[in-house]
Amino acid sequence: MPPEELLDMYTMRKAHFADWYFAQKYNGGVGYDWSTNVVEEFMRKPNICGGYRVNTCVVTMETYQHYINDKVCLVIGSESPWAEAALLNLKAKHVITIEYMEIKTDYPKLTTYHPSTVAELNIKNLWEPVDLIFSFSSLEHDGLGRYGDPLNPFGDLESVARARCLLKPRGILMLGVPMAPDTVLWNAHRTYGKYRLALLTMGFDILDLIGTFCYIEEHAVRGGDVCQPIIVLQKTEAIHTN
């Protein structure tokens, strides 16, 4: 359970709450080695959304390839370069990865940053806005502490808001999160229903939803009764709150 004083902020007094606890501490680990050989090996593999083994990612990327071809793309959250490889296969000009774990790579069209480095560049007005951001099964974990990150009831919402700042005007966000009635499965992840999904996509126009869409009347349970389509979003000129 989160601290009692944070519980209402996590649920917004609307979401269900259930325990599904992981004690994974990734910060400060040994990191990843994405050598050119590793990246090229992933480029030869089919795009099946990493370990999820579904075609949602390849369908989304190929449908909207015109937003990828000769564009600078950013991936948020990666343990292996499957998404980066897929974007490179679709002729991305360059791919940037933001990940808490240290990633070493010598692939010429791939750059990796820790989130703190990106924040520093942005504060100093040294960040070059990107054309497209891709994130699949990542942001729903933010702020739950599962990966050694600090507890933050609004961590996922803040991550999307920061991502919006990294995009060019009218830039594209391809966002894959689990959809079901609003639930916090502590501390595994969140699922997104009509309340939190609306907050998560604030500041964007919805262009498309690719994959299986479902809405389960009962609250989500461990590992089941959820769908994970990809929402294709376009950055709006301004965020309207009325």
Structure commentary:
The chain is 24% helix and 26% strand. The protein has helices spanning 4-11, 36-43, 56-63, 82-89, 115-123, 155-166, 196-200, and strands at residues 16-20, 32-34, 72-76, 94-98, 103-105, 110-113, 130-136, 167-176, 183-187, 189-191, 204-210, 230-235. Strand 3, helix 4 and strand 4 (94-98) form a beta-alpha-beta unit.
Average the pLDDT over all residues and give the rounded result.
87
Structural class estimated from helices and strands: alpha/beta
- In N-to-C order, the SSE pattern is HEEHHEHEEEHEHEEEHEE
* Count of alpha/pi helices: 7
Sheet of most strands: 7 strands, mixed
Classify the helix fraction into a percent range: 10-25%
Oligomer class? single chain
Q: From the alpha-carbon coordinates, what is the Rg to the nearest angstrom? A: 17 Å
Proportion of beta-strand residues: 25-35%
Tertiary shape:
globular
Q: How many DSSP E strands?
A: 12
Q: Please give the alpha-carbon distance between the first and last residues.
A: 34 Å
Can you list the strand order of the major beta sheet? 6-4-3-7-8-12-11
Low-confidence stretches: 216-224
Structural key phrases:
about 240 residues; alpha/beta; seven-stranded mixed sheet; three-stranded mixed sheet; 7 helices; 12 strands
Brief summary of the model shown:
By secondary structure, this protein is of the alpha/beta class.
Layout of helices and strands:
Layout (H helix, E strand, L loop, with lengths): L3 H8 L4 E5 L11 E3 L1 H8 L12 H8 L8 E5 L5 H8 L4 E5 L4 E3 L4 E4 L1 H9 L6 E7 L18 H12 E10 L6 E5 L1 E3 L4 H5 L3 E7 L19 E6 L7
Parallel strand pairs: 1-9, 2-5, 3-4, 3-7, 4-6, 7-8
Antiparallel strand pairs: 8-12, 9-10, 11-12
Helix pairs in contact: 2-4
